Amino acid sequence: MIIGLTGGIGSGKTTVANYLLSKGIPVYISDVEAKKVMAFPEIISQITAVFGAEVLGENNTLNRDKLASIVFNHPDKLKQLNAIVHPAVKKHFEQWVGNNKNFPYLVKEAAILFESGSYKDCDAVITVSAPLETRIARVIERDGTTREKVLQRINNQISDDERIAKSQYVITNENFEQTEIQIDAILDLLNNK
User: Fold this and answer.
1) CATH number of the domain at 1-26+105-193, out of 3.10.450.330, 3.40.30.10, 3.40.50.620, 3.40.50.300?
2) Which residues, including other chains, have CB under 8 Å from residue 182's CB and lie 6 or more apart?
3) N or C: which end of the chain has fewer CB within 10 A?
4) What stretch(es) of the chain map to CATH 3.40.50.300?
5) How many Å apart are CA 87 and CA 29, to the nearest integer?
């Protein structure tokens, strides 16, 4: 069984993922794994074929900042990048699932689980939510950014209401002791399926 784990920026997805990992549940952190996949030589060559050698840094590694500056605010360029990266990450995830098939369930954590369509590969989805002001404060503290930049990122994501409507489970992550109780309740439900 594959469980999707998603939520907007600052909701606490990583906190929930780390708690699940501490319980011995394999968790595929999509952003982390996508960075690894983007470092594969065959992916770098596909990206440079589309975006040019200027996206390369030292030792022919990908200059992620340069690439981000090209695709940011250019949906067509982002679409081209995603067309290279998403299929490679999907294949990588499938290999990871195969390597972890002895577990009763696996968790795929992804900020854009619904937007990317990868929720279709999940048997159930958990959405992590938190009040807007809590999310803003967390991201400002974590990233050292401004309120305006956080709001811009939040507004570029689908809403919590949209995520929740498509999810089987919802965790409200304001206080971690309460969050643990909610996660444990979901794990009990999954273990009894």
Assistant:
1) 3.40.50.300
2) 171, 172
3) C
4) 1-26+105-193
5) 16
DSSP symbols for 57-69? -GGG-B-HHHHHH
Rounded CA-CA distance 41/74 in Å is: 25
Q: What is the phi-psi region of residue 31: left when phi exceeds 0, alpha when psi lies from -120 to 50, beta otherwise?
A: alpha
Task: Report d(CA 161, CA 29) in Å as an integer.
Answer: 23
H or E segment at 160? helix 160-165
Query: Is-contact 124 3, C-beta < 8 A?
Result: yes
What is d(CA 36, CA 73) in angstroms, rounded to the nearest whole number? 24
| Sheet containing 27-29: order of strands | 27-29, 106-109, 2-7, 124-129, 169-172
On the question of pLDDT at 58 being above 90, the answer is: no
Q: In terms of Cα–Cα distance, which of 8, 15, 18, 13 is closest to 131?
A: 8
Cα(139)–Cα(9) distance, integer angstroms: 7
The whole-chain average pLDDT of the chain stands at 92
pTM of the model: 0.88
Q: What is the pLDDT of residues 146-181, one digit of tens each?
A: 999 999 888 888 999 999 999 999 999 999 999 999
